[in-house]
Amino acid sequence: MATHDMDDAQATYSGFIGSLKWAVPLIAVITLFVIMLIAE
User: What is the pTM of this model?
Assistant: First the structure.
């Protein structure tokens, strides 16, 4: 049973890291865009 829980945890973690790889650069680009709008 403990192994099954660990497999679920690793799958969840893997999905989270995969999402993070897309979310962080996207947020950085949006932030840069907003900063450039404010600076004008």
Answer: 0.66
- Give the chain's domain count: 1
Q: What is the C-alpha to C-alpha distance for residues 30 and 22, in angstroms, rounded to an integer?
A: 13
Residue for token pair 């893997």: 14
Residue found under tokens 């679920």: 8
- For 16-38, write each residue's pLDDT tens digit: 999 999 999 999 999 999 999 99
Domain of residue 16: give its range. Answer: 1-40
**Cα 10–15–19 angle (5° rounding)?**
145
Token pair 């829980």 is found at 5
